[in-house]
Write a structure and sequence with these properties.
Radius of gyration: 16 Å
Structural class: mainly alpha
Order of helices and strands: HHH
Number of strands: 0
Strand content: under 5%
């Protein structure tokens, strides 16, 4: 069994998990945004933005690597920056309430 054949189940599992992260993160972002639209509370708007950034960040590295041939380390750096920005925005949303 070659290295690539052994890595295939892991690659499939990673794709499934990243897809689930995108779906669940998208649902959380949608509900936070829906709550913001209903209440017009600024903190909920920031919360929706923060979750959106975290969700986007968590799926970005693989997409950039697979679709745009961006070096994996560059994709991971961009992913981490978006997750960091999302967490900062989420923390701010909790602070402004």
């Amino acid at each position: 069994m070659s290295f690539y054949a052994a890595a295939m189940p892991t690659a499939i599992a990673l794709a499934v998990v990243k897809t689930l992260v995108l779906i669940v993160g998208g649902v959380i972002t949608f509900f936070a945004y829906k709550a913001y639209r209903r209440t017009r509370q600024q903190a909920l708007g920031y919360l929706a933005l923060g979750f959106g950034l975290v969700t986007l960040g968590l799926v970005l590295a693989g997409m950039l690597y697979e679709l745009l041939s961006v070096p994996l380390m560059t994709g991971i750096l961009l992913e981490s920056l978006l997750v960091l920005a999302g967490f900062v925005v989420i923390a701010y949303s909790l602070y402004v309430t």
